[in-house]
Specification:
heterodimer; A: alpha/beta; Nucleotidyltransferase, domain 5; 2 domains; 8 helices; about 20% strand; B: alpha/beta; five-stranded mixed β-sheet; four-stranded mixed β-sheet; 9 strands; about 35% helix
């Protein structure tokens, strides 16, 4: 019996999954807070308790994400691009292009033949290219980030943002509020602006017909609709889009364990 | 004869009045007013008061800057790049390159014989503009005007790895929580602005003399950081915010004097010293 754990320490949320013989057993999410190492440790305990196993039963732990190096109990650290690709493959092996929208970075990945990673592009230098832009706007409009998607879907007249910068966008949103634009229309405009940035990221790696959206951004129905309109196709969104990279980390943990096992036997 | 230039920027409105010889008679810097440039006419009134002139005695008014459109008290609009180049060249005739960092943009101007020949600009991203400094000042709860002096006290400058203002804000907060001194963080912030600006202006091939203007030029920490990157001294006008308005006034003067010399009519608008708004008047 072999259990594997994948932990994805993101800028906002730390996600963990525990898998047994390649099957997902349970998952947990906690806020990353200011201490990534402590968040990961807490998450590990919760996973072990939920699955009712002890550390001796765990054959491998892989960490990934921007806080991965703060985790001291993992067997190895793997890039989030690789984990995201592995995670999507485990869910749907036919996906050719992956878009992952996270708390402070977005990624576009193109898969090649036989599950190899063909190309990727990352937007991490600009807040307006990630879900961070949504968080900034949620603060301005005094709403929770979960409310953004449903509100945006009700927009009838999206605001066109003249800027691609989160700081200038914030000022522009305040001006639009003063002019009487609704939250719905402002948020739909934010989604369009973010979609434009993501679409140019996707263009760098190449858009294929089977395209998946994951990361926390996959939970935002407004972003999904706006991206689908921009890219001109329907996106595949897995049931727990924010867990894909953590799942991929567990898959990598199992792969490494198996190959190492073969090598020594 | 008197000529006025009014430069309506994103945060400040600047007015300069010159006389027939081109000498400065009055210069005022005041807030643009968050409420759609409502205060621009007040700044003009103050400048008139300083010069002890009535509005009627102003021969010609040129508006420039981001808010130059539909100014009811101007005869003409001229782009801020042309006005800046004119104003800077009148103060520093040997200028080759000008760097202007304002409240929400940063520009590089290549000037030959007092005329603008090329430019580069960033108005797309808050990083590298005055806005970046504003966000940092707000984060630390210190006054924008105090940033420069404070940063000069730094003895161990730290690097800021984020380019984006939003991410940099988060980064400086965590540096502060690690116990790093505000002045050392501010020195790092200044270096980040200088790096971004110089990288942009390099596209013009920087030629001396280099003149640094705009509100951010009032920050001695940023001036120092830019000089460090360039390896030589830059010139900062006594009033670095006023070069656009000065250029506007001088261009108005040039136009009127040329027209008078050629016995040609001067094209004016019906001016009203009234509020100006972003929206077309109804």
């Amino acid at each position: 019996m072999a259990w594997f754990i994948g932990i994805d320490v993101g800028s906002v949320t730390t996600k963990g999954v525990i898998a047994k013989d390649g099957v997902l057993q349970c998952h947990h999410l906690i806020p990353s807070g200011f201490n990534y190492g402590a968040a990961a440790k807490k998450l590990l305990q919760e996973l072990l308790t939920s699955a009712d196993v002890s550390m001796e039963d765990i054959a491998g732990i892989v960490t990934t994400g921007c806080g991965a190096s703060n985790v001291d109990f993992a067997s190895r650290k793997v890039s989030d691009i690789v984990c995201c690709a592995r995670g999507i493959q485990a869910i749907s092996p036919l996906v050719q292009t992956i878009i992952s929208v996270g708390g402070q970075a977005s990624q576009a990945i193109r898969m090649g033949d036989s599950g190899r990673l063909a190309d990727f592009a990352v937007s991490e230098r600009c807040a307006a290219g990630s879900a961070r832009f949504l968080q900034v706007m949620a603060n301005v409009l005094r709403i929770d980030i979960e409310e953004i998607g449903p509100l945006s879907l009700n927009s009838t007249n999206p605001v066109t943002f003249s800027t691609g910068c989160a700081v200038f966008g914030e000022t522009e949103a305040i001006t639009r509020i003063a002019e009487g634009f609704s939250k719905e229309d402002i948020l739909a405009g934010v989604h369009q602006s973010l979609s434009n940035k993501i679409a140019s990221l996707v263009a760098q790696v190449g858009l294929e017909e089977k395209c998946a959206l994951c990361g926390g951004g996959g939970l935002d129905a407004g972003l999904r609709r706006s991206l689908e309109a921009k890219l001109g196709l329907q996106l595949l969104v897995p049931p727990h889009p924010q867990l894909v990279t953590a799942l991929g980390a567990a898959v990598v943990a199992e792969e490494k364990h198996t190959t190492r096992g073969e090598a020594t036997s | 004869m008197y000529f006025a230039g009014v430069d309506i920027g994103s945060t400040m409105t600047k007015v300069v009045i010159v006389d027939e010889d081109g000498s400065i008679r009055s210069r005022i810097v005041g807030p643009t007013g968050a409420e759609h440039r409502r205060l621009a006419n007040k700044v003009m009134e103050e400048a008139l008061q300083q010069a002890d002139l009535s509005f009627k005695r102003i021969e010609y008014v040129v508006a420039t800057g981001y808010g130059r459109f539909n100014v009811p008290f101007a005869d003409r609009e001229i782009t801020e790049l042309t006005c800046h180049a004119g104003g800077i060249a009148s103060l520093f005739p040997r200028v080759g390159t000008a760097i202007d960092i304002g409240g929400q943009d940063a520009k590089g101007l290549k000037i030959h014989d007092g005329k603008l020949v090329d430019f580069v600009m960033n108005d797309k991203c808050a990083a590298g503009t005055g806005r970046f400094l504003e966000v940092i000042a707000d984060t630390f709860g210190i006054k924008f005007e105090d940033l420069g002096e404070m940063s000069l006290r730094s003895t161990r400058e730290i690097g800021i790895s984020s380019t984006c203002t939003v991410f940099a804000q988060q980064e400086v907060v965590s540096r502060l929580s690690e116990g790093i001194l505000i002045e050392d963080i501010l020195a790092g912030v200044n270096d980040s602005i200088a790096e971004r600006t110089i990288n942009m202006v390099r596209r013009l091939r920087i030629e001396t003399d280099v003149v640094f203007t705009g509100g951010v030029a009032l920050n001695p920490g940023v001036v120092k950081a830019i000089e460090k990157k360039l390896g030589y001294e830059v010139f900062v006008p006594e009033q670095p915010l006023l070069t656009g308005a000065l250029g506007a006034a001088l261009l108005g003067r040039e136009y009127v004097l040329k027209r008078l010399a050629g016995n040609e009519p001067i094209v004016r608008k019906e001016r009203q010293l009234a509020e100006t708004t972003f929206f077309a008047q109804q």
